[in-house]
Write a structure and sequence with these properties.
The protein is of the alpha+beta class. It is built from 8 helices and 9 strands. Strands 4-3-7-5-6 form a 5-stranded mixed beta sheet. The protein has a two-stranded antiparallel ribbon with strand order 1-2.
Amino acid sequence: MTSPQPPSKGDKRIMTSLDRSKGGEFSPPLGELEGGYINKMDKNIDITIKVWRQKGPKEKGAFETYPLKGISQGNSFLEMLDILNEQLINEGTEPVYFDHDCREGICGMCSLYINGRPHGPGTAITTCQLHLRKFNDGDTITVEPWRSAGFPIIRDLTVERMAFDKIMQAGGFISVNTGGVPDANTIPIPKEKAEEAMDAATCIGCGACVAACKNGSAMLFVAAKVSQLALLPQGKIEAHRRAKAMVAKMDELGFGNCTNTGACQSVCPKNISVTHIARLNREYLRAKMKE
């Protein structure tokens, strides 16, 4: 993408920074960017939000419908939910519970199932990077939480996300001697291996792969975390124990098995490839053969 040209003298358009997320959309606060400038063609639209409401993990949930009038297409999806909650509070109604943190496509907390797709209709973006210009006037938008045994619902759109942390605790690390910081060039690493490891490390653990999988499998997440270490010399020492431990923990937490449909890769906001699952399978088989 070429850099936008600075505005000429007297140009009233506003230049703003671009979203740097890999393969993602622009994420301006006010409107769509074209060539680095805010697009003033965004319209105000009327939409209907059909959102999942559930008071607790053991309570029965149901969809509730709320109209929103005059919402700018320049708003992000989470800003739209903020506006909805303001409206609900002013009406004396309990606001919708949903997760969010960085709102920059980094933390993976804003994971929502929107119109039957994890993170909504965009490609290679998270929910917080999705803007209402993806929707039209009069649309009904259905919003649900992740549906997985590994991600039980806490309330409304908020789910328990500790499962991925437990998988990482089982083996997603390396053991090193503490002390002085080693020189950066002490261990030579081929450029292609370093880049592939970095691609795997871009996984933000949002859980879209699990939500999209018909089996509720977390294999793409586990594979990315195993790959980023297995490809590097620092991760070789514990490679066999790591693969077995992380897969065992994934199974223990109720995630399903992979049947190679590729749905996980198609919705991943960081474009993590299913080739990492093949590497995980190889690492796991090597570990089992050495038992």
